[in-house]
């Protein structure tokens, strides 16, 4: 009998029996709380919005601290995601908070692919968790979960409608992360404009099929407040780290020439509502939704791409070992096929190379024979020329010898005539006076 059948029978045969006395497993919630507190919690927030909408200021205001960070400029060549992790402590509860900001979002002339780096970053965190989960030796209890639990989407307070960039980006992200839309710097528009702007945003999100995060109402303890807060989405918020004295209290506020806007005054903005819903009421639900909904969707798609399924074509439970063997055999078959193709390709290329080499060798031989013939012809010409030059040299030497001989004979004849003339002069002195 298969293990799945046994498990099914065990589940179907479960009975409820009364206890005769106290056992003690009612302390399990306390044990779970103590263990969770000792391990600490992690929460990851993605802030998406154009530069200058006050994302960093709002984070500082939400967690009542000053996070380090450099102000972004409008000269970024593309969208970059900057991640910073902080360890926070409140009472005896530790929180590892990661804030991811989109630097340069919406600053480019061509905004068509602005959402892609964000989607790739979210998928990369899912992939890292999946790889850790698929390891033989897993350490998930100490693994730093970097999956995004909440996406605060900052909307510019234009008072008109959502930009096409906002709609496209939220549509690409709604199946990967919990989106909470907020109107940034809501003190830039009037109350009446803000109310109309909220209605316009909600209608555009619905008409374009964008699924934003809805605060859960299935838990009776938070159903009422969550149901009320769902009607206030998107939240209109204001951020400020400056404290001003209002009455007898120091409060976070923004000072303007016409008056003061109090951050924690619900009549001025929805900051308190956002803090209550994001941190104090639904933080665990955001973490759970990330794991059970968005990560499970990514995991299922990835495993289906790898060939894993829950049931086979006969609707029977799928065996992991059988799937592995089938994929292994399929992989080996493809490997052998590729190996054979590569071998044939290699043989074909060797043959082509041999033919090219033979052709080149033939051309070289022909060229060598041609050069050899030219060399022989040149050699013959040179030998003929040398022979003619030797003949000319010999003829020249003969002529030179003859000329020298004639010259010596002529000089001898001239010398004898001179002696004869001198002798005659001696014998006849009258010849000297002439």
TrEMBL record:
Q: Which UniProt keywords apply?
A: Cell projection, Coiled coil, Cytoplasm, Cytoskeleton, GTP-binding, Nucleotide-binding
The record places domain Septin-type G at: 39-305
Q: Which CDD domains does this entry report, sorted A to Z?
A: CDC_Septin (cd01850)
The UniProt entry, under InterPro entries, shows:
G_SEPTIN_dom, P-loop_NTPase, Septin
| Keyword Disulfide bond included in the entry's annotation | no
> Per the record's keyword annotation, is Isomerase included, yes or no?
no
Provide a GO CC annotation, any one.
septin collar
The record ties this protein, via Pfam families, to: Septin
Q: Which Gene3D superfamilies does the record associate with it?
A: P-loop containing nucleotide triphosphate hydrolases
Q: Name one GO molecular function term.
A: GTP binding
Q: Compositional bias of type Low complexity: which residue ranges?
A: 407-417
The record's region (Disordered) falls at 405-434
Principal localization reads: other
Q: Which residues form the signal peptide?
A: none
Q: Where in the cell is it found?
A: Cell projection; Cytoplasm, Cytoskeleton
Sections of the chain in a coiled coil: 321-399
User: According to its UniProt entry, what is the function of this protein?
Assistant: Filament-forming cytoskeletal GTPase.
What is the protein's quaternary organization?
A: Septins polymerize into heterooligomeric protein complexes that form filaments.
Hey, which family's this protein in? Belongs to the TRAFAC class TrmE-Era-EngA-EngB-Septin-like GTPase superfamily. Septin GTPase family.
- Stated name of the protein: Septin
Organism, per UniProt? Cavia porcellus
Its gene name is SEPTIN6
